[in-house]
Amino acid sequence: MAATDLPKSFDPWDQTFLEDPYPAYAELRARGRVHHYEPTGQWLVPHHADVSALLRDRRLGRTYRHRFTHEDFGRTAPPPEQEPFHVLNDHGMLDLEPPDHTRIRRLVSKAFTPRTVERLRPYVERLASELVGGLVAAGGGDLLTDVAEPLPVAVIAQMLGIPESERSRLRPWSADICGMYELNPSRETAERAVRASVEFTEFLRELIAVRRGEPGDDLVSGLIAAYDEGDRLTEQEMISTCVLLLNAGHEATVNATVNGWWALLRHPGQLAALRADRGLVSGAVEELMRYDTPLQMFERWVLDDIEIDGTVIPRGSEVALLFGSANHDPAVFAEPQVLDLSRGENPHISFSAGIHYCIGAPLARMELAASMRALLDRAPSLRLAAEPERKPNFVIRGLEALHVEV
Question: Kindly report the CA angle at 369 between 376 and 52, in degrees rounded to 5?
């Protein structure tokens, strides 16, 4: 399908679309299973069945460098001045394929076990309660900066063993690096990402050096010690893994928190039901991540030709798997436009699928449930103080702020 056949409502740089992309997704799904989008040169995939299948299809990959050079794949190498960002990004398991992905994920899993996550529960719940307590004591504030951001950043920093005095630098570094994941990032965005990559890398290199001499009960020490059949993580792999865990470990949680509460505040009946029945919290976390998906799109390279509904997508192409659209597909979700906290089966793909399924999903769910319970318990009359503004981002969907009163 040519770009001219796409609905005009699909425009990732238009603020109207960013406010509510879901009607445009419905048009995309109605028009077919795959669409070529000329502005980015990508193939858009909007249906749940296709997105779910392609996330598991080994003919696609997060990288192609394990099989092809840039030239062989018909692509241009990144500009040399962006090398610090790409070195950092390309050594993290999210952007690797087997065998490197398999090796790194296996080693990271040794230090990122369910027991490790569960040990954090008292800390997560205590911190969530303290943050909400501060919001209540102030009579309200910005739910984003007062609760949604500090909770997951502190938790990941605690896991990594980053001193509290250094934690204020983490969120700005993460935000600058994640700017590169948007569509067609600007030169200024790239410059900020490179600068953050250099600073973050140096910070972690120093932290790893300290932990080598003085290991502790933290994830960095665990990554240093992790080995299997003679395999170990290189220092660059450790650095990239720490950055990935921080970025992926809090970006989704931050945006899921504010997107979720903005949805609840617009659906007073659902919020009232949640306030009346804490048994809905677990299902509410899943439904809110489906209803307004924090990561709207996930990209994959086509390593071998694939065919979708009669359209051949050749090797060297890039597909854009539209998570937000898949999570609103009526073929899978009854009345997907309706927020239903009591929804039963909820196979949303907000945490991806296949070998790149989010390793931090259990921690994200714990954090989201903890902050939700704390807000329900300590701020039972929470209400909107000002209409929020959407961030001008498509891929990572969030709000500039969410001002509330208690």
Answer: 135
In this predicted structure, what is the pLDDT of residue 364?
92
3-state secondary structure of 54: helix
pLDDT of residue 229: 64
- Residues 393/394/395/396 CA torsion (nearest 10 deg): 40
- Helices H / strands E in the chain, number of each: 17, 12
User: For residues 391 and 141, what is the distance between their CA atoms, to the nearest angstrom?
Assistant: 18
On whether the pTM is more than 0.70, the answer is yes
Q: What is the pLDDT of residues 7-61, one digit of tens each?
A: 889 999 999 999 999 999 999 999 999 999 999 999 999 999 999 999 999 999 9
Domain-by-domain residue ranges, the chain?
Answer: 3-405
Q: In the sheet where 140-142 sits, what is the strand order?
A: 140-142, 403-405, 383-384
Between the CA of residue 178 and those of 114, 241, 246, 322, what are the distances in Å? Answer: 27, 15, 11, 18
With CA atoms as reference, report the closest residue to 303 among 320, 318, 285, 284: 318
Regions of the chain with pLDDT less than 50: 1-4
Alpha carbon distance 321, 49 (integer Å): 11
- Helices 281-291 and 235-266 pack at an angle, to 10 degrees, of 100
CATH classification for the domain delimited by 3-405, as one of 1.10.540.10, 1.10.630.10, 1.20.1250.20, 3.20.20.140: 1.10.630.10
> Bridge partners of 52?
none
Q: At what angle do helices 361-378 and 268-276 cross, to 10 degrees?
A: 90
Beta pairing, strands 60-61 & 297-302:
antiparallel
